[in-house]
Amino acid sequence: MRLTLPNLATEILSQIFKHLEREPTTIKNLRLVCRRFCEIGSELLVPVLSFRFDEESLRRIKEISDHTSIRKSVREIRFILSFYNRSLTAIEDFVSFYGRCPVG
Question: Where are the alpha helices (DSSP H) in 7-84?
Fold first, then answer.
């Protein structure tokens, strides 16, 4: 069998693609090459999920969580706050506080 890029082991392709993590446009284009590249590239699309407490961000989170391959790529979640309150550094306090606030 002739060795070509699509014939490489998934682990090797994944390592190659990881070098492109900071270039989402390139990863999006790689996903268009073939199904295999799409599956591997999907796992690199959203390593950091940043969001605010607004409808658009919550819609994006829902879309990502519903996508079987892309949701696996999330390694970190960041809440973007318009202010910083030291008393809300514990996640329980944070969730309790924002649970009482209207979204949007």
Answer: 10-18, 24-31, 35-42, 55-66
Residue 51 to residue 87: CA distance in whole angstroms: 20
Dihedrals phi, psi of 75, to nearest 5 degrees: -110, -20
Domain that holds residue 21: 1-45
φ and ψ of 51, to 5 deg: -155, 160
Domain tally for the chain?
Answer: 2
Cα–Cα dist 34/41, whole Å = 10
Beta strand segments in 1-100, E: 48-51, 76-79
- pTM of the prediction? 0.56
* Same domain (yes/no): 5, 39: yes
Render pLDDT for 60-104 as a digit per residue (tens, 0 to 9).
Answer: 888 888 888 788 888 888 888 766 666 656 666 666 666 655 544
